[in-house]
């Protein structure tokens, strides 16, 4: 049995195969209409969602399966203090596969450790969002035809934007990909992301200027400033309109640049850009549904063993206040050693460096 918590748990070949399935589904939806007959997907969404939740549910229904869900954290036993682990065990009795979204970093991993059915991470705090990345990768494949050698600009909230972290991880595996990370100083990508880019020798640069970056990009991935992750509302107010992509700014871009956005947008892409043929964000939503169909099918038919984790270190404490290990009942600290470093460890759940 396999879950999907981090996009890197899928090999490049597996992602190719999921995209092949999704593309086949576009031409032959009838081949998939009964593929999950009798199976049930539980949608456990403890954070707001429109696209991800509906696309998971719509994906399962299009596969001939059924869905069940709690309407939100406030109406589930989580509001009574039930742990994520116990919730995952409960749902394992009623469904065949779980899609979970939760505000805490590492929550989906905790669910997967306790569930005895596959768990899909539909967004854990500001950490990862692997199925959005599947939507993004299919969009890039359909728009560009390849991944190698692309220059990918990612703009906005690179600190808390979980889609950003998963996309960088996934795109880093293709030859010659370069990243231009466009953000205000306060919203730069976490160090676990840049450390991994450095370790793999991947070309990237950071800049605060969208205008300066635009002309060199094959892809511009815009993101929303993640208001719900800020501890300081005044800081959010000062940063919220850092970047607004307008039709005027689009004149700086290559004629074949692809504009992407996981959505929802708040203000960061002007509505006038929607009619530009380079705007791909609405296509991304549809691609999300068919990639989620391919993923559900794969996980429900995959009998392989999960990849064993490397040695865990237990003698440290996580300092990230948003990490699931701060609140989950009796969750033992678990750290991984940073490769190539002598005494550096990262939390298994949120990847923050132990201090
Ligand atoms: C994203 C998310 O939830 O992380 N939305 C999505 O799933 N398509 C991006 C966001 O909320 O800004």
How many domains, in number, for the residues?
Answer: 3
Read across the widest sheet, the strand sequence of neighbours is: 7-6-5-8-9
Output the structural class.
alpha/beta
The H/E string reads HEHEHEHEHEHEHEHEHHEHEE
Ligands (ions, cofactors included): N-carbamoyl-L-aspartate
CATH architecture of the largest domain: 3-Layer(aba) Sandwich
Helical fraction equals: 25-40%
CATH superfamily of the largest domain: Aspartate/ornithine carbamoyltransferase
Overall geometry comes to globular
Proportion of β residues? Answer: 5-15%
Overall mean confidence score, pLDDT: 95
Summarize the structure.
With 355 residues, the chain is an alpha/beta fold. It has helices at residues 12-27, 51-62, 84-92, 107-114, 130-144, 162-171, 191-200, 210-213, 233-239, 247-250, 281-301, and strands spanning 40-45, 66-70, 97-102, 119-124, 151-155, 178-182, 204-207, 219-222, 258-260, 335-337, 345-347.
Explain how this protein is built:
It is a single chain. The chain folds into three domains: 7-129 and 286-301, Aspartate/ornithine carbamoyltransferase (Rossmann fold, 3-Layer(aba) Sandwich), CATH 3.40.50; 146-281, Rossmann fold (3-Layer(aba) Sandwich); 310-355. It is of the alpha/beta class and 355 residues long. The protein is globular. The protein starts with 11 loop residues before the first helix and ends in an 8-residue tail after the last strand. It has a five-stranded parallel sheet. A four-stranded parallel sheet has the order 2-1-3-4, sandwiched between helices. A two-stranded antiparallel ribbon has the order 10-11. α1 (12-27) crosses α11 (281-301), α2 (51-62) crosses α11 (281-301) and α3 (84-92) packs across α4 (107-114). It has eleven helices and eleven strands. 43% of the residues are buried. Helices cover 33% and strands 14% of the residues. β10 and β11 (345-347) form a beta hairpin. The model has no long low-confidence stretch (mean pLDDT 95). N-carbamoyl-L-aspartate binds at residues 51-52, 123, 129, 132, 162-163, 224, 262-264.
